[in-house]
Amino acid sequence: MTLARTTDPIVAIATASGRGAVGIVRVSGARLAPLIEALCGRPLKPREATYLPFRDAAGEPVDHGLAIQFPSPHSFTGEDVFELQAHGGTVVLQLLLARCLEAAAEPDPITGRPRLPGLRVAEPGEFSQRAFLNGKIDLAQAEAIADLIDASTEAAARSAGRSLSGAFSREIHALRDALIHLRMLVEATLDFPEEEIDFLQKADATGQLATLQSQLAAVQQRAKQGALLREGIKVVIAGQPNAGKSSLLNALAGAELAIVSAVAGTTRDVVSQTIQIHGVPLHVVDTAGLRESSDEVEQIGVARAWGQIEGADAVLFLHDLTRAGLPDYAAADAEILRGLQQKLPASVPVLDVWNKQDAAPMADASSAAGADRADRGIALSAKTGLGIEALREQLLAMAGWQAVPEGVYLARARHVQALSQVEIHLALAAGHLAAQAQLLDLLAEELRLAQNALNEITGEFGADDLLGVIFSRFCIGK
Ligand SMILES: Nc1nc2c(ncn2[C@@H]2O[C@H](COP(=O)(O)OP(=O)(O)OP(=O)(O)O)[C@@H](O)[C@H]2O)c(=O)[nH]1
Ligand SMILES: [Mg+2]
Fold first, then answer.
1. Closest residue (by CA) to atom 23 of ligand 1?
2. Which domains does the chain have, with CATH numbers?
């Protein structure tokens, strides 16, 4: 979808498909009066719900319901909006949609011209896109609409609501205003070079920049948490055959998803399940046990396991406590560890998980080796559930989740990336400012780039294709 500023009138069924008590057909455009007249048989008062029959071409009722008109600019899209709240059946709503299109093309009895020329079915997200283009909401808010609709947990819905109401945008604007103030100062200094150092010092440019950086850090932290709520992280369970990986997935999910058996090499395919811990979605992946195998199918399973590991945000390296003391077992684990270190960047945490604690020899727990293991990770039993709760808490910490007292906004990875860009440019700016006189041009440029990155979040500056991508992911009628 392109972001050309089209003003064609658009229509869509705004409610979900399927049966429901009420369904809504929504029209947005300009000069809707002739269409309203055709469907309702009378003009409507602004923002007042009127119960009446919706008429077909012969004047017979298609359905009875509420009609509401929201004149521009006081509507969701900023254009004239006309809404029909009908009975929520698929056929009824399709009939009403078709009737709107038909009535729009019919000649108006007075002018003889089509009642609403060019009325067409809306693209996904087109109503929100118009709201954005008409300045009713900014880009971060438009994204929050889609996120609110898609939210799968209460925490995600709450934080999307917070973003939609503009809490996130307000913080971005506050940062931007502080940045603009500093930029004006620097740009003015560029024009009067002889006074430069004095001027910037008097205005405490360094202090202003430092304040800006600490404000940014606070917003970044909350946005990161929000992105985590929206997107979650991928946790891969890896380890030797029979360590209990599938049992652990089942224990975390609370359901028998993956086949568990005493046969080493049971799991071949990747099995994954999204679980929620305090509202944070974790995509947990069970994989085939890692070992050399002559079985062709098992080899494919092992290759897939490594593929999953490479894409992990965190790895649970599972060990079997009942065999941990055996030399062969320890050697095989060391081999896997080398593989993990090779394939994973240092930023991906690997947690050692010692399974089958219920069946582990008592001596082991108190031995030196046992104490060493306790330092490196967590002991549990996938079978009895002992220690699973502690693992869940540990997983949240690994995901980087921290409850933020003021609440988070449901940010997207795109926002977090933009904020990191701002951080980088501000750090470079601080360097140039510390080096003073000669680098003022560079300082000004970094501040400009920082502002561009901020503006990308709210959409005040951004490539058209980026906007197209964002809106095309919306559902129709939004
Ligand atoms: N005692 C005890 N046995 C367990 C525990 N967890 C798993 N087992 C047993 O260990 C065996 C292997 O379990 P799985 O979950 O299939 O192990 P896996 O790591 O998925 O094995 P592969 O898919 O072959 O790689 C089964 O017999 C399980 O019942 C545990 O906490 N305690
Ligand atoms: Mg398995």
1. 267
2. 10-136 (3.30.1360.120), 160-228+412-459 (1.20.120.430), 232-405 (3.40.50.300)
Residues with CB under 6 A from ligand 1: 241-247, 260-262, 264-267, 288-289, 355-356, 358-359, 381-383
Query: CA-CA distance, 355 to 239, in Å (whole number)?
Result: 11
Report the distance separating Cα 457 and Cα 279, nearest Å.
25
Cα(338) to centroid(ligand 1), Å: 23
In 3D space, the residue among 411, 456, 457, 462 whose CA is nearest the CA of residue 162 turns out to be 411
Q: Which atom of ligand 1 is found nearest the CA of 382?
A: 31
Cβ(86)–Cβ(96) under 8 Å? yes
DSSP string, 54-77: EE-TTS-EEEEEEEEEE-TTSSSS
Distance from the CA of 271 to the center of ligand 2, in angstroms?
9
What would the pLDDT profile of 54-93 be if each residue is shown by its tens digit? 999 999 999 999 999 999 999 999 999 999 999 988 899 9
Beta 61-70 vs 80-88: how paired, if at all? antiparallel
Q: Measure 290 CA to ligand 2 centroid, in angstroms.
A: 10
Cis peptide before 73 (omega within 30 of 0): yes
285-to-207, 213, 234, 343, 369 alpha-carbon distances in Å: 47, 38, 7, 17, 29
Q: What is the pLDDT of residues 106-120, one digit of tens each?
A: 998 888 999 999 999
